[in-house]
Amino acid sequence: MFKFFKPKPTSFSSPFKGRLMTIEEVPDEVFSSKSMGDGFAIEMMDGKVLSPVNGTITALFPTGHAVGIKAEDRNEYLIHLGLDTVHYKGEGFKAHVELNQTVKKGDLLVEVDLDFFKQQHVNMICPIIVVNSNNRKIKLLKEGIVESQEDGFLAITV
Known about the structure:
Elements: E1 18-22, H1 29-32, E2 39-44, E3 48-50, E4 55-60, E5 66-71, E6 76-80, E7 93-95, E8 102-103, E9 108-112, H2 114-119, E10 125-130, E11 137-140, E12 145-146, E13 154-157
Antiparallel strand pairs: 1-2, 1-12, 2-10, 3-9, 4-5, 4-8, 5-6, 6-10, 7-9, 11-13
C-alpha cells in the first residue's frame, strides 16, 4: 500500500540541546494526557532557549517559565521550561523577548539557570505543545539527544 501522506518534517529546530521524549513520557499528567494538546518534550541540557521557528511571540508568562510562538507556517507552539517551575516566580529565568515581538529561528528567547534548578531538584523536562494541533499527530523522527537548532526530527501529520 502506498503512503501518500507520510509524516513530513516541519520547519522546527530544537530550541536547546536535550533528550527527546514523547509527550506521553512526561511525568506530569497535565502534559502526558494531552489535555493542553499534542506535542513532545526535551529534557534540557543547555540553558539557552533559542527560537525554533520564524514567528511571533504570542505568550510570555511573567515568570519566564513558558513562551508561546506562532510560526510563519501557522503552527502555534508553547514551550514550557521545566516541570513545576512556575512556583519559582521567575527565579532562574531571564526573558530576552517581549509579547508580540517578531523572532527569527535561532534568536535567544530565554536564559535558564540550570544550576539553580539542579540545586532545587527540579525536573527540567520541557514539554513543547502544538497548541493548534487539532486532529493532527505529532511524530518524532529520531530518538535520543537532539542538538540545539537541529532540524528534521519532528513531523506533524494530518
